[in-house]
């Protein structure tokens, strides 16, 4: 709870400070060009959070996983790119209080039926494009982020809205991304691939809610 409170405090400070309101609108960027080069801000895993929710016919499960490392790229006062590494071994289930049930689900999620963590200990996300959301309210998502998500060694593009901001050597991004697990060869319990599984069916899509905090580092980097 302390970690969540601290990260929420940083985000609130970034997104509500008067100076942020005076910043120019988010500009469309495509990392990989000289124009998109920027100063590297190091992701702060101890302040950042990444939660997940997976649903099935009879209910849902939720939990979290930790960022291992990463950076966001800032040009001027605009976020223009970034790369993030997630430690899949840190995967936790938070909705099951019974230790035995919790352990069994965590073990299954780490097994080859799902994320195959032994062979794929990390997942990565690399931003390829950031587009402003015109007319976004001060407390709403202000950018659409597109990037390459790699899970189980399979890379697919995803796009999602987010609220991003940069101020006083700190950068923040919050939002929710919806992932189709079947695109990453995670087909266990999917109605799309198996018939007659009834109430054991698990929905193909799961969500990741992220709250990323990054701190300005040294040097210049580009994706």
Distance between the termini: 34 Å
Share of helix among residues?
10-25%
What global shape is seen?
globular
Q: What radius of gyration results from the CA coordinates?
A: 18 Å
Taken as a percent bin, the fraction of beta residues is: over 45%
Write down the secondary-structure element order. HHEEEEHEEEEE
Q: How would a crystallographer describe the biggest sheet?
A: 9 strands, antiparallel
The helix count comes to 3
- Counting DSSP E segments of at least 2 residues, the number of strands comes to 9
What is the average of the pLDDT values?
A: 85
Report what the structure shows.
The protein is mainly beta and 223 residues long. 14% of the residues lie in helices and 50% in strands. The chain has helices spanning 2-16, 18-21, 99-110, and strands at 38-43, 49-56, 59-75, 78-93, 122-132, 143-151, 154-167, 170-180, 202-221. Strands 1, 2, 3, 4, 5, 6, 7, 8 and 9 form a 9-stranded antiparallel sheet that branches. Strand 3 (59-75) and strand 4 (78-93) form a beta hairpin.
């Amino acid at each position: 709870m302390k970690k969540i409170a601290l990260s929420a405090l940083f985000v609130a400070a970034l997104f509500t400070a008067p100076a942020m309101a005076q910043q120019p609108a988010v500009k469309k960027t495509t990392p990989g060009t000289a124009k998109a080069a920027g100063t590297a801000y190091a992701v702060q895993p101890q302040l950042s959070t990444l939660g997940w929710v997976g649903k099935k016919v009879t209910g849902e499960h939720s939990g979290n996983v930790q960022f291992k490392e990463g950076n966001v790229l800032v040009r001027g006062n605009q976020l223009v790119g970034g790369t993030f590494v997630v430690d899949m071994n840190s995967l936790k289930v938070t909705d099951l209080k019974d230790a035995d049930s919790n352990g069994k689900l965590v073990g299954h999620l780490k097994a080859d039926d799902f994320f195959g963590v032994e062979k794929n200990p990390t997942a990565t996300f690399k931003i390829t494009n950031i587009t402003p959301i015109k007319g976004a309210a001060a407390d709403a998502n202000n950018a659409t982020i597109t990037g390459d998500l790699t899970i189980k060694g399979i890379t697919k593009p995803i796009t999602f809205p987010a609220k991003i901001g940069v101020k006083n050597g700190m950068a923040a991004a919050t939002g929710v991304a919806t992932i189709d697990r079947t695109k990453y060869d995670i087909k266990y319990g999917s109605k799309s691939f198996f018939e007659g599984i009834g109430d054991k069916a698990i929905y193909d899509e799961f969500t990741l809610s992220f709250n990323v905090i990054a701190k300005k580092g040294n040097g210049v980097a580009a994706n």
